[in-house]
Amino acid sequence: MFLSGVPVIAAGCLLTGFLAKRPRAGLAVTLLVLSTFLLWKNFVADIVWRMHPALGGYTFTQSLAICWSSHTLGLLQFVLWVAPIILIVASMIFYPLYALMSRNNSSI
Q1: Contact criterion met (CB below 8 Å) for 68 and 85
Q2: Best CA proximity match to 96, nearest among 11, 10, 19
Q3: Which of 8, 28, 74, 83 could form a disulfide with 99 if both were Cys (CB 3.0 to 4.6 A apart)?
Q4: Is 34 helix (H, G, I), strand (E, B) or coil?
Q5: pLDDT for 24-82, tens place per residue?
Q6: Alpha carbons 74 and 89: distance in angstroms, whole number
Q7: Up-side HSE of residue 69: CA atoms within 13 Å toward CB?
């Protein structure tokens, strides 16, 4: 599927590079939408899908516990699961603020 793996990560890296060179609100919003999609697809959806009756019908806490236990079997697996979450959330917070602050500073 096109909306997974390398193409989405490459698009995020390109947007980040373009945004660092020339901060624009449009690119920041695009990166924010892409980051939200990645956060949903790779982390939140795993928990939500388990709550569907046809896919297990677990409660939220049960689904979260299953997700947590499946991703914390080893230290390396945990780091490989948590590092993208941190990078995505940082992209969602830092780059839109950076673009807005740079835009405000350039208009002065």
Answers
A1: no
A2: 19
A3: 28
A4: helix
A5: 778 778 888 888 888 888 788 888 888 988 888 899 999 999 988 988 888 888 887 88
A6: 23
A7: 6
